[in-house]
Write a structure and sequence with these properties.
There is one protein chain. With about 160 residues, the protein is an alpha+beta fold. Helices cover about 40% and strands about 15% of the residues. The chain is built from four helices and five strands; from the N terminus they run αβαββααββ. It has helices at about 15-25, 50-60, 85-110, 115-135; strands at about 25-30, 65-70, 75-80, 140-145, 150. A five-stranded mixed beta sheet has the order 1-2-3-4-5. Helix 3 runs antiparallel to helix 4. Residues about 150-155 have low confidence and may be disordered.
Length: about 160
Amino acid sequence: TEAFRVDGSRQNVDLSDEQLQAMHGGLVTHNHPVHEEMRADGKPYNGNSFSPEDVMTSRGADLQELRAVTPKWTYSMQRPENGWPSHSSLKQAIHEADKRVFLGLSMQVQNGLRTAADGNDNFYHELWREVSRQVPGLNYTRTPFHGGKAARLPW
């Protein structure tokens, strides 16, 4: 059941206190649309995984699940069975993972193993994979779309 619909800018969506309260304990699906500009390598930008703000808002609203849909992927983050970690511990896990993922992707770009555009496109996906390894019970997945049908992969 759709509780409400909100239009946002390219960078964010502002939610009212009433909307945040309506989300409490639920499942939220939102889109990360294609940007009109092209990546540096000339390919279209196809949306991305969750921002840290998406996940921290999910924690604050105690969501059971957060989903983001792009033209290429559906991303899902499910709350651990015992609940979300504290604000400070989740923020710390994100901060630590951010440093490791940035360094790892930067090294891959430097060594010619991936392009800078690919590293940028996959940064948040790799960030949430790393955070989900650090936070017990946090379940993060990325599911590819093929003709409108999804096949769930364990990464």
